TrEMBL record:
Source organism phylogeny: Bacteria, Pseudomonadati, Pseudomonadota, Gammaproteobacteria, Vibrionales
CDD domains: Radical_SAM, SPASM_anSME
Cross-referenced NCBIfam families: rSAM_more_4Fe4S (TIGR04085), sulfatase_rSAM (TIGR03942)
Keywords assigned: 4Fe-4S, Iron, Iron-sulfur, Metal-binding, S-adenosyl-L-methionine
Claim: Iron-sulfur is one of the keywords in the record: yes
UniProt-recorded name of the protein: Anaerobic sulfatase maturase
Pfam families in UniProt: Radical_SAM, SPASM
Molecular function via GO: 4 iron, 4 sulfur cluster binding; metal ion binding; oxidoreductase activity
Entry keyword Metal-binding: yes
CC cofactor: [4Fe-4S] cluster
């Protein structure tokens, strides 16, 4: 890596900056932690999962579980680190429901124990939905959890990669979860993992979720996994193997491709976004939220990005594993990016350390010249550094694998985005 990149931060000790200590003025310092109290353990075996392999990589026990002392330390430290009125916990994995309902009852108790007056604690739970029964849904409703349900579209699209350990389909189980969530009025949104297969079907996915399931919030997450993601941390890739944009090796399907077979094709990703965007604008503007479209509209209006991936800097989304180890980001859970352990440093000390600061700044500071000259720079900012797997047409490293698709999306939609932002601005000034 020729420039400052997130990997340079790993050599630094954890030195808290001034912002790690609450200021007398009570300045709001925002960061978020994705908690994985059950480690990478899951009850299904999705082929494209970016997290299952952590069982081996991090030498996790057979049944990883954040113990009481660590859970207490995490909840206390996280609450103490948040300045705002709203404190949002996010529970993920692996599959967090494998820990059982009593585990989450304990979570809520601990949150109440440490909750300061005048604050509001909220919980998000990302799940495959398979274990959600009446009892779970009663609890989720009573405690106002927001559920992120993984669903990749209608049956044929969902079942392509989301299978049980014995290779059986899971769509019917997810549909049962939808039914239970709706019956118990649990708030939920759909997390769609866009892969090489379902990327060809944007309208089927969108119409299925919004019209058949009545989903009003959709999160789109493109699958981009380098071939060696099981063992190699981002930015530690073999530089000799990095292909140039447009090369056959910079797409899925080639035996020597830089990405896995199930990764999304970058050009298909652009087409997918453009087609879904038009469907959304024509039918559901203001009624259905799609994470990438919402932030694009906001950014065109001159507002800050709502997502780390399209922000100028990042580093405000840490991850904590079952044993209390804290990492720079959910997508950087590799030994090279471990910050410290919750029993050794507070979350504030880690989140506002010079090492984490450098990690976050590198999102902008490591951009290749091609991005700096890009007309869409202020809406994209080189997308997520973990996807900067390819070289620019003039051979510079650090270009995002999805670049051609992102450009295609903005080529197609920028006039509409500008029109939308003007309408919204006029409405706001009335
Ligand atoms: S590395 Fe990627 S996912 Fe992680 S905080 Fe930065 S932009 Fe977000
Ligand atoms: S669209 Fe491509 S060139 Fe432009 S900022 Fe994003 S990754 Fe860089």
């Amino acid at each position: 890596m020729s420039k400052t990149s997130p990997r340079h931060s790993t050599a630094m000790p954890i030195v808290p900056m001034k912002t790690a200590f609450k200021s007398a003025q009570g300045n709001e310092r925002r960061f978020h932690v994705m908690a994985k109290p059950g480690g990478a353990k899951c009850n299904i075996d999705c082929q494209y999962c970016f997290y299952l392999h952590k069982e081996n990589l991090l030498h996790q026990p057979k049944q990883p579980k954040m113990d009481d002392e660590t859970l207490d330390a995490f909840i206390k430290s996280y609450i103490e680190s948040q300045d705002g009125e709203q404190i949002v916990f996010s529970w993920q994995g692996g599959e967090p429901t494998l820990l059982g309902l009593d585990y989450f009852r304990k979570v809520v108790e601990l949150q109440k124990k440490y909750q300061p007056k005048g604050t509001r604690i909220e919980n998000d739970l990302q799940t495959n939905g398979i274990l959600l029964n009446d009892e779970w849904c009663e609890f989720l409703h009573a405690n106002n959890f927001l559920v992120g349900l993984s669903i990749d579209g209608p049956q044929e699209l969902h079942d392509k990669y989301r299978k049980t350990r014995s290779g059986k389909p899971t769509f019917h189980l997810v549909m049962k979860a939808v039914e239970k969530l709706q019956q118990h009025q649990v708030r939920f949104n759909a997390l769609v993992t866009v892969n090489r297969h379902n990327v060809k079907h944007p309208l089927e996915i969108y119409r299925f979720l919004t019209r058949e399931l009545g989903v009003t919030y959709i999160q789109l997450a493109p699958v981009v996994e380098p071939n060696d993601f099981h063992t190699t941390a981002p930015q530690f890739w073999n530089e000799q193997m990095i292909p140039e944009m447009g090369s056959e090796l910079a797409k899925p399907g080639h035996p020597m491709s830089v990405v896995t077979d199930w990764s999304v094709d970058p050009d298909d990703w652009g087409e997918f976004l453009s087609v879904m965007f038009v469907e959304w604008v024509n039918n559901d503007l203001g009624r259905v939220l799609v994470n990438l479209f919402e932030t694009a509209v906001a950014q065109v209006m001159g507002k800050p990005s709502q997502l780390c991936i399209t922000a100028e800097f990042c580093g405000k989304g840490l991850a904590i594993e079952h044993n209390g180890d804290v990492y720079s980001c959910d997508h950087y859970v590799y030994p090279e990016y471990k910050l410290s352990n919750i029993h050794d440093h507070t979350l504030n000390e880690m989140a506002f350390s010079t090492r984490q600061f450098t990690f976050g700044m590198a999102k902008r500071d490591s951009l290749p010249e091609y991005c700096k000259q890009c007309p869409y720079l202020k809406y994209c900012w080189g997308e997520c550094p973990k996807n900067r797997l390819i070289k620019t047409p003039d051979g510079e490293q650090g270009l995002n694998y999805l670049c051609s698709g992102i450009r295609r999306f903005f080529d197609d939609t920028l006039p509409m985005l500008v029109g939308l932002s003007q309408i919204l601005q006029q409405q706001n000034t009335k």
